[in-house]
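Worked example 3. Consider a protein that binds flavin-adenine dinucleotide.
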Amino acid sequence: MDVVVIGAGVLGVTTAWYLRRDGHTVTVVDRAEGAGRETSFANGALLHASHAEPWNAPGVVWQLLRWLGREDSPLLLRPGQIPRVAGWGLAFLRNSTQARFARHTRINAALAVYSLQQLRALRAETGIRYDEAANGILKVFHDRAALDTVQAASQIMAPLGVRHEVLDRAATVAREPSLQETAEHLVGGIYYPDDESGDAQRFTERLAALAADRGVVFRYGTSVERLGVQGGRIDSVETDQGGLEPDAVVLAAGNDSRALARQAGLRLPIYPVKGYSVTLPAEGWAAAPAVPIIDDARKIVLTRIGDRIRIAGMAEFAGHDTTLHPRRAEAVLRQACSLYPSLTEHARGVTPDYWTGLRPMTPDGPPILGASAVSNLYLNTGPGHMGWTFACGCARLVADEVSGHPPAIALDGLGPRRMW
Ligand SMILES: Cc1cc2nc3c(=O)[nH]c(=O)nc-3n(C[C@H](O)[C@H](O)[C@H](O)COP(=O)(O)OP(=O)(O)OC[C@H]3O[C@@H](n4cnc5c(N)ncnc54)[C@H](O)[C@@H]3O)c2cc1C
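Given these inputs, the predicted complex is written out as structure tokens:
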């Protein structure tokens, strides 16, 4: 089949890779001048099945209220967005019951475990390098109740293959000795030995190059403007550089998937949740941790990627606005410095790279995958805070559906029909 993939982020490029392996003729269209230039550009770099729980845990509403209106809080709702986010927000809260949270955590965890298996297989097949590391991930806690809550979510995921070890303070510091700096404030940690890390953008760019070697055509600098629908199928993909008439289309356009799907009559409740990251050189910071850290209280992740340190966090409801607000970007770095005081001095002597990106988020948590009500339109979108982790699994499942292969894991709770 002749397939067009819209979007050369990590989801689109992995989809193109698997479609080509299945024998299809594949064209990837992206408005950017290369692969992985939007949300896949400078994310937290974690391949974290351990973080599969959606953001709407029971009780989330009280946490949101505590943070409301604070410019430096991990979550910020810009007042102008309230009418725009209302429908999505109500669905987000509706999904925060214990039963739904547990169900969506299980769906995400199964997908994440499968995705990491696919990533490892792809790595073994291609030898692709992306500053990858397989050191697990350590979540650290400053109060017992928070540790208990995350442990409960980890127990939901354990039967699906997400292994974890609960550690007391001494064992947490033994696992990652750099935490000694503020050890007296820690109550303990949870270590997830099977999680990994790596540079999503480097991976996306290099996989795109490998896919191009195998015949995938990349049309960069090309914006999709309209999806033409005739007789319940896409009959044309109109771009600013001319039209395409493929047999099938995979929509992997991140935060723009919603607007493009709307043209085909589909309603996808995807909201762009803004986050920030800071990247600095690791050299010169003696305490740079080897194991990626997730600080539950500060809502940041801190990851070593080769010779760099990446810190990411924040959730801002500001629509599609990608303005980098220095105060919020610096707050991410400040949070990391309060966990690692020695980072303060190091950061003063280097020039940090600040970045902001929009997580394409569904209100229930899992992404939206597979065949849609438009017969030749397939979706691979809405992965939220898990897109790098999910990429290879989502892509394999969508390529299987396009190719008519049975999926390796159940698609219940992942398909677009749950949204209609
Ligand atoms: C601060 C932050 C930290 C994160 N940390 C992690 C993490 O540690 N681990 C993890 O698993 N996930 C993480 N994520 C989430 C992850 O980065 C995203 O889920 C993932 O990058 C989404 O990939 P995508 O391919 O769906 O979207 P994108 O990477 O945004 O790709 C979509 C592509 O579609 C193109 N496009 C859109 N519209 C059009 C159009 N009309 N015509 C042509 N092209 C178009 C865009 O140019 C873009 O290249 C983080 C996100 C943020 C913001």
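Take a moment to read the result before moving on. The longest helix spans residues 98-126. The chain has eleven helices and 20 strands.
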